[in-house]
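Q: Second attempt. The first request was missing the SMILES, so the protein and S-adenosylmethionine are both included now.
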Amino acid sequence: MMARPRLLDLFCCAGGAGAGYHAAGFDVTGVDITDQPRYPYEFIRADALSLDPSFITSFDAIHASPPCQAYSVTAKRTGNGGAWPRLIEPVRKMLERSGLPYVIENVPGAPLRNPIVLCGTMFPGLRVIRHRLFETNWTVQAPLHHAPHPLCHTLDRRKNHFGCTNEWRDFVQVTGGGNCSVAAARDAMQAPWMSKPELNEAIPPAYAEFIGRSLLRVIRQTPEPVIVNA
Ligand SMILES: C[S@@+](CC[C@H](N)C(=O)[O-])C[C@H]1O[C@@H](n2cnc3c(N)ncnc32)[C@H](O)[C@@H]1O
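A: Got both inputs this time. The predicted holo structure:
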């Protein structure tokens, strides 16, 4: 049997991305600057930008999810994006230097190059509206169908549809304020081990599994399947 390739999961938090790559077939090692007691795989506490280049190139591929606060819609609205470090550019330089296939994930508005956008509506089983961008240094074909967003569950009494939705049946949004219980957010994102602050930071594992399957084909040099619209 072919060995599982090794993926370095930078800025790993509690492992939303890591769990997806693991499901796709990778052995995963996470790096985060703060302790991550719920990270499910091998974990190293370190500054991702200070890693030894020979450690980085001991892996087969790299994923990086640098903090998004500097690029977020909130930062743009409040004009305080400058209060947060802009890590995408130095991270990209580091990944390019490695010569490995890489993925940089971030929020809409972040300065990623030719990213694809993934949304919870593209994945059967997910019930979360959460757009995330993925830059890769190989070609990934995004799912062709981005369905119109369904009505999201709300706890806000001012909304017209308050009381008409169900957090266990309908789509939710997982944000700082939140519009559903933690249990429903875990179910909607398919990340049952995470705390609420971790869910707020995470991508649904299904997104990384999708990217990871394409990455695996690059590493194993097998052709991409043609995606046919449903
Ligand atoms: C958006 S979260 C990553 C979410 C993760 N990809 C997931 O899907 O669960 C960003 C993480 O970057 C970490 N972080 C911030 N600066 C860092 C640095 N210089 N080196 C390593 N990790 C860092 C934060 O502690 C946080 O956990």
